[in-house]
Each structure stands twice: as C-alpha cells, then as structure tokens.
Design goal:
Recoverin, domain 1, 4 domains, 6-stranded antiparallel beta sheet, 6-stranded parallel beta sheet, 18 strands, globular, superoxide-generating NAD(P)H oxidase activity, Fe_red_NAD-bd_6, membrane, NADP
Length: about 750
C-alpha cells in the first residue's frame, strides 16, 4: 500500500485519480471490514525491522488519536508527502524526531493542512529524544555500537544542530543543519514517501544488451573467438561430410560430426591446462585471447560435444536401421551390439565404443550441473568427471584419427598431472595457524614451500586429508607473495567441505585453545572472538596444487584499476593490496639514511580504487587490520605518491535517502569529521550506507581521466552482471574472478 507513494512521485495530475483508486483498493485489502488500519496492520504494511518508526509514523498519520488510521487520514498524509514541498517533508522529519510528543497532536492537524509554519517553533528535540531516535536508527541499520559511541554520536549531532546553545533543537535549527548536507536535501525534494518503501527498480531497455554497440565493443575478443570457433566447426563438418558424401546422407552427417568431435574433445583438454594458461597470461597472447573465460569456454565446448555426439550417434543408428532393412538377415540390435569388421574402430567395435561414450558423456553432463556441485555433493561431480580418462581411451579406440588431434594436448595434460603429483609426493605442508572469523570464515596460515612462487591474486587447489582424502578445492591466496615463510587462505563456509573444515577446527576438545579478539579497537565493540589453534594442532597436514593465474595478474599493467570485492570476494584484492604495500614500503641505508622504494613507482597502477561491499558490520573484521595498515602507510606518503582510494559499503544500513537513517548518517558524518575515524570500522574511510550507485561511482572514475580503466570484480554472479553492464556503458574493461 505505502509503496504506491514511491512510484507516484513521477505521476502527472491526470494519473492522480487512478493512483487514488489503487490506494483505496489496497487499503481495503489490508483494513478488512472495519475500514480502519490498526497498529499491527500498519507495521505489517510498512515492513520495517523495528517497531519504533512504525509507531512514530502511525502516530503522525492518526490525526484524530483514535488508535486507527482511516482511508481519509492515510490519503491526506500520502498526498502531502508525495506532492508537498521541501518544507512539508522536512516538518514531517522533525515530527518523527520529536519523540515526547509536545504539541504533537495539535501540530499534526496543522501539518496536514500545511499550516505548520508558524507553529513549528513550539516543538523541540532535546538530547534524550535524539539519543532514543539514533539508537533505533542503529538497530534499523543493523549497526552494533557500544553505548558510549551512541552518546558520542548524539553529542556530535546535537552540538552541530543546537546553534543557539539553548539545550534543544528547534525546527529552524534542524533545517539549517540539514542545509549543510546537500545530498539529504536533494533526496527530500525527490519524494518523502519513498522513505516508506525502497523506490521501484529502473525500467529496463527494450533493446537486448547483447545487441548494443557497447556490448560488442567490450566483448570483441570473446566474440571473435566464438566466431572463429563456430567457423572452424562448420569447416570441419563440411570437409568431413563432403569426403564421405558418396556413402549416403546419414553417413555424411555422422562423419561430419565425427570430425568436429575430434577437434572439440581435444579442445576440452586444452582449456583445462591451467599451468599452460597461467604461463600464457604473461605473453602478448593474453591481450588477444580471452584466457580469463577458459572455464566458461570449457563448459560451452562440453555442451557442444554432447550435442554433436547425439547427432553423430543418431545418424549412425539411422544408417544401421537402413542397412538392417536392406539386409533382412540381421536386426538393428546386432549392428549396434556386435563387433563387425569394416564398421570402424579397433576390431570393428565402433558401435559398442560409441554407445559407451554416449552414456559416459550424458552421465558427466548430468552430474556437472550447478545444482549438483553447489548442493553439497561435490564428490559426485568430482568422481564422475574423472571418467574423462575412460572417454579419451574409448575415443582413441573408436575413431581412427582422434589420436592425431589429441597427441599434443594429451602430452601437455599428462605433464601437468605429473607436476601436480610431484607436489603431492614432496610431502604435506603444516597448517601453522587457524583463525575462526565471523560469519564462518576459516583463516588458514600454511607454511610456504621453498620453491613456491605465485603472483598476487593467484589461486591453488587445496586438499586436507583430515577433512576429505580425495577432494581438491580451489581457493584464492589472500597473502602477498612478498610474505616469505607462510601464505594465507580465507575460506567461507558455503558448502559441505568448507563447513566440515570450519567445524573440524571448532571442536571443543581442541587443546591449548586461546581466544583472541580481532583487535584492540574492536574489543569494546562486541564479544566476538577468534579461536586460535595451539601448537599441538600444527601437525594437521595439507597438500596444494598450483599456483594458477587469474585475471588480476593484469592489475600491474593497468593505468587506473578499480577493485570491487563483495563479501569474501576481497581475498584476491587483499593479496594485491598487501603486495602493493610491500612494494611501496621504503628502505633506508643505515649509514647515510638515504631512503628508496625497492620497486619503481611506474610498476604499479597509477591509481587504484578499492571498493568493498559487505552485508553487515562484522564482515569488515576479516581484513580490517590490513586496511588500517594501508591507510597509515598512505598517510605517510607525499600527496603525489598516494595511489589508493578506499570505498566501503554496508548494504544492511539504511541509505541517506531513508528518513529512518537521515539523522544517524548525519551524526556519523559529523563524528567521522571530528575524530578522523569511522565509527563502524575504525578506518579513516567513511563507510557508506546501502549499495553503491554505480553510475556515480564509475562516472567519477571516468571524470578523473587517469588512463585506461580496468575493473576487477570478485563476488556474487548477480552483482557481477550489474557491474559488467555499467562497465560496458562507460567503456571500461571488465575482469571477473572465477573463484
């Protein structure tokens, strides 16, 4: 019901009647037979987390004090909030904050009749009222702060707004203070009714994104590869079909598909040569081929193989059926199930190996679907995928020419597997330290092998026999390569294996268990502890395979890099930021005190914008110490040497255009300016409420004109699509981490 107001702010007067009819209908659905809305029904309609603001709104709308809201009262309130001017909406905000209700009932009727101008001064907001409202604002935004910080916020806002030092805030004083926050006043002029419900999503363009010039321009490399891949398959099909056209139509189709299968089955192996692909990232080929999309292409080729195999098998079955009818002595089953010389394959077993291949391919595809891999049954995906050994063996027996296509990628594949086994045979690595972080994140500190070399943002495959003997899972390395003795992994508990890992180190019988808080600055905030495993548990061994490269390797060739991490997606960027910090750290001569940077300034990006988006406050604790060090080192640099700008977003916090958060966000801004420290994270960077406005974020990046912009993203697929679309609009190159 109340959401109608959000969409009505752009209505013309001619649409008002239709809108009022819609509101009346919705009111009838909620109110029922009594034609009145009580407090509980109002709370349900408002959908707020806490009841405080629902009660304040209800009090303001209930002008006759009857304890219920009639349709007439609701329409008057919504009409004023939608069509009222800036002053009307500001007065409504003032009434919400005037908790004690002095003059409220008399002022409400005047407010709804727009006669509040001369009587607004009768009401006032004292410090206790402001503290109560800010406390509820914190709860509504899911922000946990100790009482002393709430007192600091109250004092900061009250001292700024109480211009005459009278001990209370009048309407005029609140108005004057709000004028110092242009973005708040701008949101007030848009629609105060949108406070009641988030605005409607923007209308989508009727033109598909894949048909826009921006899409084709930004994906020209991938589209060129797809075009070349399609053209090569068509060429191979045509050559195979024409070569065997004299044997009949069905045979021509089967042989054409067979020729394509030779190529595609070999290509499947090429696309999973991780070590070769990592090496290719450091060559000019990386600028031409979309190496970052190798997993997507692997999946695409897998589907193509299944379709081609089905057509290939169907064409042969149709041909055998024709031959069986002509022969009259042998049935179709005999052609399919018995080896016949001259049919093809080793010893005439083409039919039998073909059927076996079709069954293996269908099984592999069925258990490779996301619903299987992400539903806690990874081992099913893993073991069925190992059937590629049998598939390649059967292909060599089935097709006389497949070995020619497979010999080079097959040898490379075997070499990569041998190297992986060599790493495993070299012995397990000790897990030196384990920290259990908020939101079920396991931080592993693993001893670093002597010849283990990796780049910032690389990932490894991890196996811990104590969790599962045969399962290997990919995780991004979250520490810098410059850290010599150990490397870090931050693992979010999202599946069966990762949950087992967290629970394994959470066992109550852990010896020498020592609880440590995150940092001294957060010790007073909450009783959140880490479990640090004692020395006796340092005997837990793990095995690694890697490292393997990722798109983030290109960050050091960027002129302006934008790093966007959502939740635990910060892990590759944590490694990158630490590496930059090590490279920028100056060294000094003990004799002459001359200082220099070990890495020339031009070897890292000219500008880095780091954006971290988290759902709630506790997620920032994962890497808060690292970000604090980065800020401190940036502060010590000369202005021209500062390259990093950090942007923090907390999506559960109400945005500045929500009336329930206007006072809180003003107080947080004032206190952050006063203390040079954010109250939510303790960083100098102010944590922004809500989600990023990507048009504004990327618009600001484009205006800076620091060079070619590369955007690196790691997070949820849904958010990746949103960021990708905006990158296409601004002409930025987009890179997405797969792990």
């Amino acid at each position: 019901l109340l959401g109608a107001a959000a969409g009505s702010c752009t209505m013309s007067m001619a649409e008002d009647a239709e809108w009022l009819r819609w509101v009346t209908k919705q009111f009838g659905n909620i109110a029922g037979d009594d034609k009145e809305i009580d407090m509980e029904e109002f709370k349900t309609a408002l959908q707020v987390k806490e009841s405080f603001f629902a009660e304040r709104f209800f009090t303001l709308f209930d002008t006759d004090g009857s304890g219920t809201i009639s349709l007439e009262e609701l329409l008057k309130a919504l009409s004023l909030l939608v069509h009222g001017n800036e002053m009307d909406k500001l007065r409504f905000l003032f009434q919400v904050y005037d908790v004690d209700g002095k003059m409220t009932k008399r002022l409400i009727c005047n407010f709804l009749t727009k006669a509040l101008i001369c009587k607004a001064a009768c009401g006032s907001i004292d410090p206790d009222e402001l503290r109560v409202v800010l406390g509820w604002c914190l709860r509504e935004s899911a922000i946990a702060l100790p009482e002393e910080r709430l007192a600091d916020l109250t004092l900061a806002l009250f001292e700024a707004a109480d211009k005459d030092r009278s001990g209370s805030i009048t309407f005029e004083e609140l108005k004057e203070e709000l004028e110092g926050f242009p973005e708040v006043m701008e949101n007030l002029t848009i629609s105060a009714a949108s406070w009641l419900k988030p605005p409607l999503p923007p209308a989508r363009s009727c033109r598909p994104r894949h048909l826009t010039w921006d899409y084709w321009h930004n994906h020209r490399g991938k589209l060129a590869c797809l075009g070349g891949y399609t053209g090569l398959n068509l060429l191979l099909f045509a050559l195979g079909a024409l070569w065997h056209a004299s044997l009949g139509g069905w045979v021509a189709v089967a042989r054409g598909c067979g020729q394509c299968l030779n190529f595609n089955c070999a290509l499947l192996a090429v696309l999973m040569l991780r070590r070769c692909l990592t090496w290719l990232r450091a060559t000019p080929i990386a600028k031409v081929l979309p190496l970052d999309q190798h997993v997507v292409f692997h999946q695409l080729v897998g589907y193509v193989v299944l379709v081609l195999a089905a057509i290939h098998t169907g064409a042969h079955v149709a041909n055998f059926s024709r031959m069986a009818r002509q022969d009259g002595c042998h049935g179709l089953a005999e052609y399919l199930l018995r080896a016949r010389p001259g049919v093809g394959g080793l010893g005439g077993t083409a039919s039998q190996t073909g059927l076996a291949l079709q069954a293996l391919l269908a099984t592999m595809l069925a258990f490779s679907s996301p619903c299987v891999r992400r539903s806690g049954h990874f081992e099913v995906f893993y073991w069925t995928h190992l059937s590629y050994i049998f598939i390649w063996t059967l292909l060599i027996l089935h097709g006389p020419h497949f070995w020619k296509w497979f010999v080079v990628p097959g040898c490379l594949f075997v070499m990569e597997k041998v190297l992986g086994l060599a790493w495993q045979r070299a012995g397990g690595l000790r897990i030196v330290e384990v920290n259990l972080l908020p939101s079920k994140v396991t931080h592993l500190v693993i001893e670093r092998p002597q010849f283990f070399r990796y780049k910032p943002g690389d990932y490894i495959y991890l196996n811990i026999p104590a969790i599962a003997s045969y399962e290997w899972h990919p995780f991004t390395i979250s520490s810098a390569p410059e850290q010599q003795e150990t490397f870090w992994l931050h693992i979010r508990s999202l599946g069966q294996w990762t949950n087992k890992l967290y629970e394994y180190f959470q066992q109550p019988e852990l010896p020498n268990l020592e609880l440590k808080p995150l940092s001294r600055s957060l010790r007073k905030k909450r009783c959140q502890h880490w479990a640090q495993v004692g020395e006796d548990w340092a005997q837990v061994l793990c095995y690694i395979d890697g490292p393997y490269g990722t798109p983030t390797r290109q960050i050091f060739t960027s002129e302006h890099a934008v790093l966007i991490g959502a939740g635990i997606g910060i892990t590759p960027f944590a490694s990158i930021l630490q590496s930059i910090m090590y490279r920028q750290r100056k060294q000094s001569c003990p004799s002459c005190r001359y200082s220099w940077s070990p890495t020339p300034r031009l070897l890292w990006p000219f500008q880095v914008d780091f954006i971290w988006i988290n759902r709630d406050q506790k997620h920032f604790e994962w890497f808060i110490s690292l970000l604090t060090k980065l800020e401190m080192e940036q502060a010590e640099q000369e202005p021209e040497g500062r390259f990093l700008e950090m942007h923090m977003y907390m999506t559960s916090a109400l945005s500045k255009n929500d009336m329930k958060a206007i006072g809180l966000q003003m107080a947080l801004d004032l206190l952050a300016t006063k203390e040079q420290r954010d109250s939510i994270t303790g960083l100098r960077t102010r944590t922004q409420p809500g989600r990023p406005d990507w048009n504004k974020v990327f618009g600001k990046v484009a205006e800076e004109k620091r060079g070619k912009v590369h955007v690196f993203f790691c997070g949820s697929p849904a958010l990746a699509k949103v960021v990708r679309v905006h990158c296409e609009r601004f002409g930025f190159r987009f890179f997405k981490e797969n792990f």
